[in-house]
Specification:
This protein is of the alpha+beta class. It is built from two helices and three strands, in the order βαββα. The chain has a three-stranded antiparallel sheet, covered by helices on one side. A hairpin with a 2-residue loop joins strand 2 and strand 3. The longest helix has 17 residues.
Length: 64
């Protein structure tokens, strides 16, 4: 039987989307669907975690 997952539509720059895709590659915890070059559907329950992880990655990129 199919299982429904609540999702949030996220629109972002392609560069940010690439970072999100890289983060998700490790554990596949965040992305429900990759819609186009600027749009993703993210699991609603994981949105806060993704924002936190994305902020950490962006901070590391600015410092490093």
């Amino acid at each position: 039987m199919p299982k429904a997952v609540k999702g949030v539509l996220v629109e972002c720059d392609p560069s940010i989307k690439a970072i999100i895709l890289k983060i998700d590659q490790e554990r596949h915890d965040y992305i429900v669907e990759d819609l186009d070059e600027q749009t993703l559907v993210i699991k609603e329950s994981q949105l806060a975690n993704l924002k936190e992880t994305l902020d950490k990655v962006r901070t590391q990129m600015e410092v490093g």
